[in-house]
Design goal:
The chain is α/β, with parallel strands linked by helices. It is built from five helices and five strands; from the N terminus they run H-E-H-E-H-E-H-E-E-H.
């Protein structure tokens, strides 16, 4: 007669533990990527209403003093990431404005890209859209003047 096995049944890891581990992994990866590529930069959150910032240090190519720089030219020297979704009407307005201004940017669709929501949560814990990362300066919501100011500031 065979004796029943005394091994405990295998327990699966709770979903919340897997979610937390994934979020932590994304946060660590995002921090490591920022630390390696943005020496000397600060990261700040700026409200969509353009509230004064504490002045992030941004890198970019130097330009002649007094020579006006277009937003399109500034965007060529600045890293601009936009977290968006196809269902987001503010994101659609922002993308249309960026196209009109000929601004180069990298779009990250949080519904299509694996891990994008975790990256967004690191930059914007409320995870509202659109969220922009302009050379380390985070802007939440779409406000054309604030976005233009951040791009120009980062290009200096």
């Amino acid at each position: 007669m065979a004796t029943p096995s005394k091994e405990a049944p295998a327990k699966s890891t709770p979903w919340w533990a897997l979610t937390m581990a994934a979020a932590l992994s994304v946060a660590v990866l995002a921090f490591a990527m920022r630390s390696g590529s943005s020496h000397g930069q600060t990261h700040e959150v700026v409200a969509a209403d353009g509230a004064p910032s504490t002045g992030a240090i941004a890198t970019g190519e130097a330009r002649r003093e007094g020579a006006p720089m277009t937003l399109a030219a500034a965007s060529e020297t600045v890293s601009i990431e936009m977290y968006s979704a196809t269902w987001c009407t503010a994101c659609s307005r922002a993308k249309a404005w960026l196209r009109e201004q000929n601004i180069q940017y990298h779009e990250i669709d949080v519904d299509q890209r694996s891990g994008a929501m975790g990256q967004l949560a690191v930059l914007n814990p409320r995870r509202t859209l659109p969220t922009f990362d302009v050379q380390g300066q985070v802007l939440v919501g779409f406000e054309p003047d604030a976005l233009a100011g951040a791009i120009r500031g980062a290009a200096r």
